[in-house]
Amino acid sequence: MTAPETEAPGSPAIRLYVEAPLAAGATVAPSAEQHHYLRNVMRTPAGAAVKLFNGRDGEWLATVESLGRKGAALAVTAQTRRQQPEPDLWLCFAPVKKARIDFVAQKASELGVSALQPVLTRHTQVARVNEARLRANAVEAAEQCARLTVPAVLPAAKLDALMTGWPAERRILLLDETQTGIPIVDTLRRRGDTRGRPWAVFVGPEGGYAPDELDLLRRFPNVTPVGLGGRLLRADTAAIAALACWQAVLGDWTAPLD
Amino acid sequence: MTAPETEAPGSPAIRLYVEAPLAAGATVAPSAEQHHYLRNVMRTPAGAAVKLFNGRDGEWLATVESLGRKGAALAVTAQTRRQQPEPDLWLCFAPVKKARIDFVAQKASELGVSALQPVLTRHTQVARVNEARLRANAVEAAEQCARLTVPAVLPAAKLDALMTGWPAERRILLLDETQTGIPIVDTLRRRGDTRGRPWAVFVGPEGGYAPDELDLLRRFPNVTPVGLGGRLLRADTAAIAALACWQAVLGDWTAPLD
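^ Those are the sequences you sent over. The predicted structure of the assembly is below.
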């Protein structure tokens, strides 16, 4: 539930992710949090326009039909954007402490990942992952950045279990801090044949993967190890940098979304 | 004053930026903050090794010779890395609120910028820039990421004044959210002749540059406008993404630092 700080005049500033189907004539009830946001935070007047998306039916204009103390109704009127195919890029990351994990979820959503996969590794400092909180951060960022989807939040998994069930067709971009000599952009450009195919960016915890974890990952057939130069990047910085390079070379930064 | 969370065994974990000259046999007095950090936070024993750098003389090992209540002496012993040329990349950014500006300074330092230039634009929400705080964040990130320099923090400037005195040889990578069609990596690759030359990344405030500001910037001879896809990126996300792409194509991510 986020209003961008500025918006084109006449365009509704409020953009909400909903689960209900969206079509002309449909009526959508906002969630309890959205209801509170519309009524008490934004003091939205009846008749105001908002934008809705659900990850399936594109983006729609809706009118605030009623906004009472107990409930609200949003009347869906016209489609503003059609649903589009989006890059299928997972971020597989070792969970970090609270502020930084919020940050990773927000930035990765802005950078267009399709799923957030927390991965527990040997050096991971955080044992419990608050998936609801990850999801809330992903939703808020998706609302704000004008995506038509929200990244899936996959259940946290131990690295070896994750790799045992790894789908063979999903390629892995492995941020390998021991391999500073393999430049990310040149390496990704040589994989131009994989554009439109599923990928995942793997970033280790602060302190890196353990040597046997790196061995496990490097043995996978579809793994592409890369380095990000000689400075020691924090895990969150490395994740954002790699997602940006991937979008710029193999993702949708070569053309506008619609 | 930062200890990385893990470090190769036997390598000193503490790495400090100092202003004094560094050479074998020199004795360096830590600053008051560093003294407090060594004595009270890290409880460093006498005889412990630390690493020092000053942006000019490379990186050196030093031994904690004395660490009393009133002062300390670090005895410089051996050089661990020679000073290297680094990319000359400024980040010209509209200052944002406290947590986000800390974040921009930290991430930009990790990503190897040579200078941080706060720029006041029409839509900039923040009037006063705490340059000492920017500098402290840049120093801490430089200590942690193993850089041999600390980015300069340039005095905040209004956009028109900055551009009036702009050095003609410094090229500008302009993040232009109205130009989603100009892909950043392909565009930078066509500027391969500028590798090793001065560049600056320009990122506007939340809400973007005003139209006349964009006109002013686009008129510069050495400006390269690029887009970062169709999602609306926050200013800090856009800055990090662009710095990463620049380092990956024209900077030092194609070879280790030393």
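The domain at 89-249 of chain A is CATH 3.40.1280.10 (Alpha/beta knot). Chain A has two domains: 15-81, 89-249.

Shout if you want it in another format.
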